[in-house]
Design brief:
This protein is of the alpha/beta class. It has 13 helices and 14 strands. About 40% of the residues lie in helices and about 15% in strands. Helix 1 crosses helix 13, helix 2 packs parallel to helix 3 and helix 6 packs across helix 11. The longest helix has 16 residues. It holds the Pfam family DUF1972.
Length: about 375
Amino acid sequence: MASPGKRLKVAIMGAKGYPIVYGGYDTMVKELGERLVDKGVQVRVYNHRSLFKDRPKMVNGIECIYTPAIEKKSLTQLTHTFCSMIHACFSDVDVIFVVNSGNGPFGVFSRLFGKPTAINVDGLEWLRPKWKGFGSKYFYWASRMATKFYDRIINDSDEMRRVYLEEFGVDSMVIAYGANPKENVSAKALKKWNLDSRSYFLIVGRLVPDNNADLIIEGFLQSESQRKLVIVGDVPFDDSWANRLKGLKDDRLLFTGYVNDPETLAALYSHCYAYFHGHEYGGTNPAMLKALGYGCAILALDTPFNQEMLQNGKYGLYFQKSQDSVSELVSYSEENPEEMRRLIETSRQGLTEKYNWDKVTEKYIQVFEELAKR
């Protein structure tokens, strides 16, 4: 427990680190960590040592600890969190905040050491196609262990809260991810690919099966659209599934690979004709939040999570999990430009207070302060 007059000290672990931003968890660590510091909280983030050539101790007021891991595809994240958890348990931090349900079992150590903990469990990892067999069973078991060992379970959507209640009989607190809406973004960065504003559809995300890029690409190619389909993202390893997609030959397809420059990514979002969102498993998705914040017309896979984010169709249109459905939605969107303009003009209104980073931070501070008093 933080003593009177002592600043609250929170350790954050389970992501790649700070200030690196590759995905949703990394974005949350950056946005939340920086705001916590501004609110007077001492923040420590555990970074993957192998990802950081330079290892400063302090970055923007955040203490950075560089812990090792076994650098194998299926072991890197888990062994990194294990090392980080042991280090944090022997330290003076008041609260340990962990992300990723795969780290659920490590809560046993914080419990043994009497360190208060919270975990953001995110999506339905055990259903994702990339985790077959043992991997799927592990994530289901790890998610169950999280509900037993951590003091507070945090989900990022009401639908995920329902899932955890049904699957594990445990209630959780809902704190969504935040968004940073942006208007009047220049189209200058699009010249790199000879793209014009509204001349393309867009996909943003890792090239993995559960994001359904294959379904969207093949459905798009089935349509008669003369626009391009721009696919932003890749996988950081050699993968036959991703390689097959990247090998498709059609002048309408443009694979950009990773786009790390935020201004370029903002331009791609802001000037697309429509943004395709095929993410299937998970709660509040950061790519969808970006699409709302940049004013995109959103075409989303019909899932309970996407229905929740788009408020049951108020801020987007849906397709079913079939190529024909994607193709039909492409045709419909091009035949109804007025409706697409309406979605572009209203999408930022979908970012209610629930998705405001400052409000999100206030909720996390409330959780951390309550845990520190135990």
